[in-house]
Amino acid sequence: MIRKTLLLFFIPCLMVPFTVTADEVVATSEAHSHGGLVAGRPDSHAPIGVMGDHAHNAGEFMLSYRYMFMDMRENRSGTSSQGRGDVLNAFMVAPLDMTMEMHMFGGMYAPTDEITIMGMIPYLRKSMNHQTRMGAKFHTDTDGLGDIKLSALLRPLKLSGPHSLHFNAGLSLPTGSIDERDDTPAMRNARLPYPMQLGSGTFDLMPGLTYQGQAEKVSWGAQTIETFRIGRNNNGYRLGDQYSLTAWGAYRFLSWLSGSLRVEALKWGNIRGAFRSLNPMMVPTADPDRRAGERIDLLFGVNIWVPDGTLKGNRIALEAGFPVYEKLDGPQLSTSWRMTVGWQFSW
Ligand SMILES: [Cu+2]
After folding, report:
1. How far is residue 29 from each of residues 17, 35, 307, 308, measured CA to CA in Å?
2. Distance (Å) from CA 8 to ligand 1 centroid
């Protein structure tokens, strides 16, 4: 349903480039450059779901807020879906659906043109519905601080022309709880399985590389960011490493409005070690060998940038999408759709 709504909304947007005439004023006089790029346009930032997409020039600050939502439903094993009966044949409990919400507060500052430092503080809320083999349904919830991320965006070379390239050097701190509990039919205040925890419990290195390019009406970019977990956490396990590769294109409809289309490929591993308090026979989310997967998402976005007036420099953006391919070491809940909405202001 939501997938259809997204397509119905965005397909007309994609048609606009062929119908709209050039009626815009490019605010070039006000534009400062991000590397070789014009910063004063809506698509000088990547779609809002991409983190660490742009560096700043010396002395610039930025504040941001993002709200992210992810909806997961139906179990999947490999690329085929599994009914709850299939899951309950092998486990005492089947997850039915899950939602994840994140409020993310971010700050950026560039002491020099070559280095931008960035911090992100997430607040998470997770909610999962289950059914037992006996037919009872129950619900678990967690919320709290997630893993704080610190990054340096390094731009050692200025590319000639409208191109920009930077390295992402990120570190994720184990500030999110890995001791979340809630009531289940089997036990009051039970330890919750891996995907309901709020953090990795380990220090994680997040290296990456980001490229962006611009032309008159269009822009494009690509980014890869990896997550490598270090050691084991206090509960004796390490989440799987993650690999991501994304590429996008954006079209500037108006001086203040752009639309984007993005593809993101994700791959993540199984858990090493295990938390002894979790019984992997009880529910698939408690099994460290049923966490890995890979996915390709298609995402549609809108960026708005205020070129003048009292709100000058504010940005508002929305991006939403869904998987077009998904393969899971399951049974594992399948991603139905996700979205990010955000606000950014720099000075
Ligand atoms: Cu910024």
Report:
1. 25, 16, 11, 12
2. 31
